[in-house]
Structures are given as C-alpha cells and as structure tokens.
Design goal:
The complex is a heterodimer of chains A (270) and B (223). By secondary structure, chain A is an alpha+beta fold. Helices cover 71% and strands 9% of the residues of chain A. In chain A, helix 1 packs across helix 8 and helix 8 runs antiparallel to helix 10. With 223 residues, chain B is α/β, with parallel strands linked by helices. Classes of the chains: A alpha+beta (270), B alpha/beta (223).
C-alpha cells in the first residue's frame, strides 16, 4: 500500500502534464486540419489587363498553389440581352482577364497582404480581391482558440511542476539517508542513485502506459470522431506510435530530471 | 611496520566554527587495535569522521590507507571507503532493506557476485548469532541485534580498517561482549586494523591495544 502511494504521487503529477500536452496536440491538429479545409475553400481573385500564363502567376508568390482563368461568358451573358453580337465580341476583347488563385495553405493576414502587394506589383494586374475581412475574422478566431488552449496547458504545466518540486523535497528526505549510508561504504554516485532512477523510470513508464490507454480508448470513441466530422475535419486523435513515443519521452525526461536534481542536491550526512 | 594512518599537523573544524582538533600528529600501525577516548565534545568522533573522509582536514595532512584525504577526489575517497568497515552508535542501517541486504551492501559495492555475497551474508549472520532473523527488517530487531547487523556489515568485505564510533554505547551486556569479540577476532585472525572511539575501554579484552586520549584539541598516547 505504502509502495503504491509512493508511486501515485509522481504518476498523477506526470499524468496531468501528459494529458494537457496531448489535449494541446489534439487542438493543434484540429486547427491545422480546419485551416487546410478553409484553404481549399479560400481563393484570391486577380484582375489583369492582359492574359498571363499560369507559370508567370505561380512565380509571383510561393503560396499560390494553382491558377484558374475565369470565363468572361457569365459576365457578358447578363449584359448581352440588348446587345448586338458584334458589340458582344468587342466587349469580350476589351474585358480584363479574371484569375482565381487557390492557395497552398490557409494564410495568415500578413501573408494575404504580402500576396496582394506581390500581385499588384505585376504591371498588368490592376485589381486583387482577397476577401480579407472574412479571412481575418476566421483566422483570429482560430488563433484565439489555440492560444486559450496553450495558456491552459501552460498553467497546468506550471502547477504540476510546483507539485513535482514539492514531491522532490519528500523524495530528497526519503532517499538522503540511504544514499548517505551507501556513500559511507564507497558506493559510486550511479549506484547510490540507482534506486531513485529506477523508481523515477518506473513511474514514468506507468504514467505513459496509463496515458496511452486512455487516449487510445478516447480516440476510438464514435462520439469523439463524430464531433470532428461535424466540423468537416478528420484528424488522427492519437497516433499509437508517434504520440506514445512523445508521451514516453516527456515523462522520462521529467522523471530523470527530477531524480538528477535530487542526486545533485544530495549532501552526505553522517 | 606499515602505517595505515598518518596524521601530520592535522587541524579539524566544522565550517565556520572553532577548531576542534588543533595541529595534531599521530599514526596507527597496520594490524593494531586502537582506542581513542576523550570527554564528550573533545573531538574524538570528529577525528573518526575525518579518517573516513566525511570531514576534510582544515589544515595539515591525513593519509589513510595510502590516500591523502586533504583535497581527495570523490572517486579516490570511494575507493578508500570500499576497504573500510564502519560501525556507528546509531547503527546506520537502511530501514527499508532486509538485514541480509544491509550486510550485503559493501559486498555488492565491491563487485561480488550475488551468490557469493549471499553465502558470505549467511556465514556472517551465523557469526553474529542472527541466522534465525534472516529476511527481517532492522526495525524488527532490538538495538543490540541491529548493532550486530551493523558489525556484520562492517566485517563482510574483509576491510583493512574498521572504524567504530561508540559501538557498544547503547547495548546490553551480551551484545556488547559479542561486538568486542568480533572486533578482537577480526584484528587477531585477519590482521584488520581496528580503531574504536569510546568513553570506556572494556576490561576483559584479550588483545594488545594502543590508547590515544583527546583533550583540548590535542591527542596524546596513554601508556
């Protein structure tokens, strides 16, 4: 019972860090997926006085993924009811060229501004419509959501680290006597601290396995997948290999740093 | 005869406090049995601490087992301690370990294979008449029994030097006699140098011994 208690204090602290980290990762992935979704529906319209080749437009800014020339027919159709066919042909010749530019990803407002100015620097392009108002609102909303989750994760991290440092004092007290006695008989530092590191590594493993189990279960829940489908995105909620390695790495690093601090802070008492 | 301890102009003090041992010279021959006596607070335990490197000399030189302890590195100190057995008045056993594992500690530190170490532990438990207590934890034993465990631990790796700080201070007569017999046996049969810090030298010892007395920060041999 005492042994379980010894493990629980660090395991719970580690779990709260791992949970906040994984939740942040899921939110980050969701936002990225949502941005990719938005990018596929977002485009910029450029108006040029003369015909431009696709490659010439693609060279203007790397964010432009593809170019589609818009047909003038739809514009003319609305006007041609009272026009003679000769005049329609003349109008066709005098109308500027419209290009719909699809982008590689959902850009930041700064990138939209740069794209607009890059396009306008091309002499034949006279007008660019970037729908910046709608774009800015959506982008800022996403950023706000991401920041709120990041702040939440940082607060959890700070509070948990404070808890861990309190735990560190208890560990220091518990292990100091044993380490001192081992030191009296000439045990090298690694041998004196072996028990401590073994405990830290076991706790990190327990916390990682628990977090792995919980997130694997959560990621397979139909309700969770449905929530993402509802907003039109599909993400990997939990990657059993990559995410587990990350969780394990973070848990191990924190535990080993904790154990190292105790070893470094150890003073031989006789 | 080889000297196992050589102190020259040795001064000892705890940080920021007055000098406890002041510029003393003394030496201990290898294989001898030595008592260090003195009033409480005279510095006899302080001197013992400096001999196993828990307190660095403030001034002078202290050579133990060929290792100069003034400015000694941690690795050299560990090397020295692996050849020293220490017994304290408060036993200094690891409470969360069984008595077997406590006795085994110096053996494992010295790189003994576990099976060899275990047979040595079994032998020592018999030697200190605690073989019936195997597998128990220190706090399950009486003070006298704990001190016998500490004694077995100090003897387990056949050290060149045994340091004992008031080893029988809190013990019943039976346990105290047993501790003295073990120290005598180790000195006589294995040639181990034994240094005991104590208030009272037992009257029924069967070994020749040297007696140093510490007073006012100085040490002198008592004939």
């Amino acid at each position: 019972m005492k042994s379980i208690k010894n493990h629980l204090s660090l395991v719970i602290a580690l779990l709260s860090i791992l949970f906040s980290m994984q939740v942040f990762l899921i939110v980050d992935r969701s936002i990225d997926a949502y941005k990719a979704n938005l990018a596929s529906n977002y485009s910029v319209i450029a108006v040029s006085q003369k015909k431009l080749s696709n490659s010439a437009i693609l060279d203007i800014n790397k964010i432009i993924a593809s170019v589609e020339e818009l047909s003038p027919e739809s514009v003319i159709k609305r006007l041609n009811s009272n026009m003679q066919s000769k005049n329609v042909e003349l109008l066709k010749l005098s109308l500027p060229k419209f290009y719909k530019l699809s982008l590689a990803y959902y850009p930041s407002p700064k990138e939209v501004k740069k794209l607009t100015s890059d396009l306008l620097r091309t002499s034949s392009i006279t007008k660019v419509e970037d729908f910046s108002h709608n774009h800015d609102t959506t982008y800022k909303l996403l950023l706000l959501f991401k920041s709120v989750v990041a702040i939440f994760a940082i607060v959890v991290l700070v509070v948990t680290l404070l808890l861990i440092f309190k735990e560190l004092r208890i560990w220091q007290y518990k292990h100091n006597e044993r380490m001192s006695i081992m030191g009296l008989f000439g045990a090298a530092t690694w041998l004196r601290s072996a028990v401590l590191f073994r405990l830290a590594i076991v706790d990190a493993l327990i916390a990682s396995v628990v977090a792995f189990g919980v997130f694997l279960y959560v990621s397979s829940l139909p309700w969770v997948l449905e929530q993402f489908n509802n907003i039109g995105i599909s993400i990997v909620v939990f990657n059993p290999v990559e995410d587990f390695l990350l969780i394990l790495g973070v848990a191990m690093s924190i535990s080993v740093v904790l154990a190292s601090l105790i070893v470094l802070g150890h003073k031989e008492e006789v | 005869m080889d000297k196992v301890i050589i102190a020259k102009n040795l001064s000892l003090s705890y940080s920021n406090s007055e000098t406890i041992i002041n510029k003393i010279d003394f030496s201990v021959n290898s294989g001898s049995f030595v008592f260090i006596t003195g009033a409480s607070g005279s510095g006899k335990s302080t001197l013992l601490k400096s001999i196993f490197g828990a307190l660095k000399p403030k001034q002078g030189s202290l050579i133990v087992g060929g290792v100069e302890l003034n400015g000694v590195s941690r690795s050299k100190l560990n090397f020295l301690r692996r050849h020293v057995g220490i017994v304290f008045q408060d036993y200094k056993l690891i409470k969360e370990w069984t008595i077997d594992k406590n006795i085994m500690l110096p053996l494992l530190i010295n790189g003994y294979v576990k099976d060899v170490a275990q047979s040595q532990v079994d032998k020592l438990l018999k030697h200190v008449r605690l073989n019936h207590q195997t597998g128990k934890y220190p706090l399950e034993l009486s003070g006298g029994e704990q001190q016998r465990v500490a004694m077995a631990r100090a003897l387990s790796h056949n050290p060149i030097l045994i340091l004992a700080d008031e080893p029988t201070g809190n013990l019943d007569e039976y346990s105290a006699d047993l501790i003295w017999k073990l120290l005598e046996g180790s000195n006589e049969q294995l040639g181990t140098t034994v240094i005991v810090v104590t208030h009272n030298i037992p009257q029924n010892l069967n070994v020749d011994y040297k007696h140093f007395h510490i007073e006012y920060g100085s040490i002198h041999e008592v004939n």
